[in-house]
Amino acid sequence: MQGAIARVCMVMAAAILNHPLLFPKENTTLQDQELIARMREHEERLEMEEARLEKELSQRDSKQEEPSSEEGYSWYFWSTVSFVIFFAIEMCRVQGGADTEIRPVEDEDMLLESGSITPRTMVLDKDILSDFCDKCTYTSAHENWRVREFVEGFADDLLESLRSVCDREADMEVWDFVGIGSMFESWKVCKPLMCDLIVPFLPPDPYSFQFHLWCSPSSDTPPDMQGCGKIKVTRLGENEEGCLCGSANLGEDMLCLLHGKDDTLKVDHSPDELLCSRNTHFLAKDQVMKWFQISVTKAWGRISHKYDFEVTFRNLDAAGALKIRFRSGKVIVMNIIPVVQLEDTDAYFVSHFPSNCDSFPDPYWPLSFAVYERNLLKHFAKRLPQHSCHLHCLQIVTFLHRKQTGLTGKSALTNYHLKTALLHLLLSKRPSVWGIKSVEHRLRDVLSFLQRSLNEKRLHHVLIGNSNVPKEVQVPEIIRKAEPINLFRSLVLQRELYATTVRHFHEMLRNAPVLIQEYTPQLPNGGLHQTR
C-alpha cells in the first residue's frame, strides 16, 4: 500500500514539474506546434498512468483487510496536499492570464526594439518642415507640370505609332492612356522623375472579355489572390443561348438577325494569338507583356528620327518600362502599362505594378483603383482648407521612406501603403484640421497610424469594403460591399519580412530629423536645389 501511494505521489510531482507555467518564458511560445504536441502527449501518458494506478489500488483494497486508521489518515493527507498544490497552480495560471498573452515572443521583441523613438516623441523642427514643404511645392509647380506635358505628348505620338504597326484584324485594339500615380496627383518629390501611364486594350472582333472577380458569389479565388480576377476571352455568341451562328454553318442564304453578316465572317484565332494561357481561354499577363513590348519597340523605331533623345527599356520583364535620356543628362522614367478595363468602370486589371515586387501567377490579374484614388484626393481638395497640408505629409513620408530604403535596403513597406494610411486619416478626421500650420501634427498622425498598422499587421485597402468612402467618388457597388482586404497580409505569413519592415520603420523614425534637414539645401543666391 505504501509503495502504491509513493507511486501516486511521484506521478503528481511529475505533473507539477511539467506544468506549462513552470517553463521559462523564452520557451512558452504557444505558436510552437511541436511543443504543444509533446505537452499533449505527455498529459495523455500521465492520465493513463493515473488511471492504471487507481485501478491497481482498488484491486488491492478489495483483497486486503481494511487499512488501519494511521494508514487511512496518511492517504487522505497526501491526497489533500496534492489537490491543494494543483489548485494553487491553477489559480496562479488564471491570475497571470493577462500577462501570458498568446503572441510570438519575437514579434513582441521587435515592437519594443526601437526604444523610446515613436512618432509622438521624435524631434521635428517646425521651421525645417516648413522649408521642406516650400521646396516640395516649388518643385511640383515649376517642374512636374513641364514633365507631364512632355510625357503626355510623347505618349500620344508613341501610341499612335503603335496602332499603325498593329494588325487591326488580328492584334489587340489599343486605347488612349490614362495618367496615374504621384506625378499626376501632385505629390511627387523624389528623383528620378517618373510617370505612370495605363493603356487599356481590347481583343479583336468578334471577341470580348469576361471578368471573374475574387468577390463574385461563385468565385473560387485563393486567399492569397484577394483583389485579383481572371479575364476570359470569349467569342461573340458563345455564351448567348439560342444562337447558333457562332458554331454552325448557316449557309450563304441564311443571315443571323442578332449579330449581322459581318460578324460571322471573322476568322477564328487560336488561344496563343489571343494572348491566353496555354490550353485555356484566360488572358495571360506574360503573353500580354511580350506582345506589348514588341509593339512598343516597333512603334519607337518608326518615330525615333523625330526626337533628339535616347529611349531604352529599363526592365525587360516589365512591358513599357522606358527610360528617356536627353543629351543634357536629364532622365525621365515612363511606365506604360497595358491594362484591361473592368466593364464600364474606372477600375483596371493591370499586367504588373511598377513599384511593387509582388507577382501574381497567371491567370490572376490584380485590380487597380488608382483612378478612384485620384478622384478621392480631388474630392478632399475641394473640402480642405485652401492651403492644406495633406499632400505635404505624404511627400515627407514618402521622402523619408525612399531615403531610408537607400540606407538599409528594401522592406515590405511601399509608397502605396503610405498613401493608403493618409487616405484613411482623411476619411476619419475633420477637414478643418488639415491646415498648413498643422503639418507637424498631421505628419505624426500618419506615422502613428502606420505604426499601429504594423503592430497589428493589418492595413485595409481604403476603397474595398469601406462604406465611409463618399458616394461622389462612385466606387462600384460590388467593390464597396466586398470584404475588406488586408494589404499587410504578407507580414502575417512571413516573420522575417515583418522583422525587416519593423526595423526599417523604426530606423526611419530615428533618422527623420537628420534626413529632412540634410536634403533641403538652399543655393547662395536664394535659388533652390532640386530635391535629390
Automatic annotation (TrEMBL):
Cellular localization per UniProt: Cell membrane; Nucleus outer membrane
UniProt topology in membrane: Single-pass type I membrane protein
Record's keyword terms, sorted: Cell membrane, Coiled coil, Glycoprotein, Membrane, Nucleus, Signal, Transmembrane, Transmembrane helix
Entry keyword Ligase: no
Pfam families recorded: Mab-21_C (PF20266)
GO CC annotations, alphabetized: nuclear outer membrane; plasma membrane
Main location per the UniProt record: membrane
Keyword Transmembrane helix appears in the UniProt entry: yes
Domain spans labelled Mab-21-like HhH/H2TH-like: 391-468
Coiled coil spans: 32-66
Source superkingdom: Eukaryota
InterPro entries given in the database record: ITPRIP-like, Mab-21_HhH/H2TH-like, MAB21L/cGLR
Family that this chain belongs to: Belongs to the ITPRIP family.
General function of this protein: Enhances Ca(2+)-mediated inhibition of inositol 1,4,5-triphosphate receptor (ITPR) Ca(2+) release.
Protein name (Swiss-Prot/TrEMBL): Inositol 1,4,5-trisphosphate receptor-interacting protein
